[in-house]
Every structure is written in structure tokens, then in C-alpha cells.
Design a protein that fits this description.
This protein is 30% helix and 17% strand. It is built from three helices and five strands; from the N terminus they run αβββαββα. The structure holds guanosine-5'-monophosphate and zinc ion (ZN).
Amino acid sequence: MSNEANTDCIFCKIAAGDIPCHQVYSDDAVLAFLDIGPISAGHVLLIPKCHCDSIVDLPAEAAAAIGLVLPRLSRAVMEVTGAKGLNILQNNGACAGQVVMHAHFHLIPRVPDDGLGYRWNAGKYGEGEAEKIRDQISGALANS
Ligand code: 5GP
Ligand code: ZN
């Protein structure tokens, strides 16, 4: 949870330069480097340099720094790989597929018919359910 560097965290070690990576971008607040197990060539990870377990803990300044570089980094990845599309994937929590517990964004270049897919089983709200959860979320935001 803390934003101090976590000595057990592999991405903190990469951010500190203690573990090598194929760095593509760095500034005071964020680092981008190639994923060691790419889904496709040019698969990049963008991380805040401060430690936080997930997006939920990400300080606003670090989130702003991520947001500032994300479109530029996306353009560079797409230009170099010749991708026609890009997935930005962000897993939070083990049940959502997060393995490294330091917040990070995947940039995954895509081309037509690349065979990379994922299950997206769209559901439907029942009567009144959408209104209920809308009010709960907007209420939680108003109180945060
Ligand atoms: P998650 O499932 O947590 O969203 O994704 C973690 C990602 O980190 C995985 O895609 C994995 O390949 C990548 N990864 C794990 N350890 C290292 C490492 O030491 N170096 C690099 N470059 N990527 C790593
Ligand atoms: Zn960390």
C-alpha cells in the first residue's frame, strides 16, 4: 500500500535500476519498459516509480504522470510495430489477473486477425439494477 519503495517488489527493483530492463521511457515519476513475456512484439509496461499495489492506491500526481505519457507512448509503440490497434490493459488484484503487485499498465500492439483474444461475456442489467449501482457509485464518489 505504501508509496515507499518496496524491497520485495520486482518493479520497484526495476525502477531503482537494481534489475535490468529494456527501458523505452523514463522521467521523474514513471518508467516504461518491454514486458519480459510479450503478448505481442512491442508489448510495453508503464509503471509509476513510486510503489503502490494497484490503481486504487495510485496517488493523483502519479496517475497524472501516467496519463501524460500514455498517448505519446501509445503512438510510439504503434508506429514502430506497425500495429493497427492497441490494448491498454490494467489488472488490479489477483482475481483480476494481477501477478506483479505494483500498479502497471500493459500496452499491447494489435493487428487484424492476430489471434489474441479474450473472453468478454457481456451481460445485461435486470429491472432497476443499473440505476441502483449508478447511484451507489456516484454516491461513493461524492463521499470520497
Ligand atoms: P500482471 O499479470 O501483473 O498484470 O502482469 C505482470 C507482467 O509483468 C507480466 O506480463 C510479466 O511478463 C511481466 N514481468 C514480470 N516480471 C518481469 C520482469 O522481471 N521484467 C519484465 N520486463 N517484465 C516482467
Ligand atoms: Zn513496487
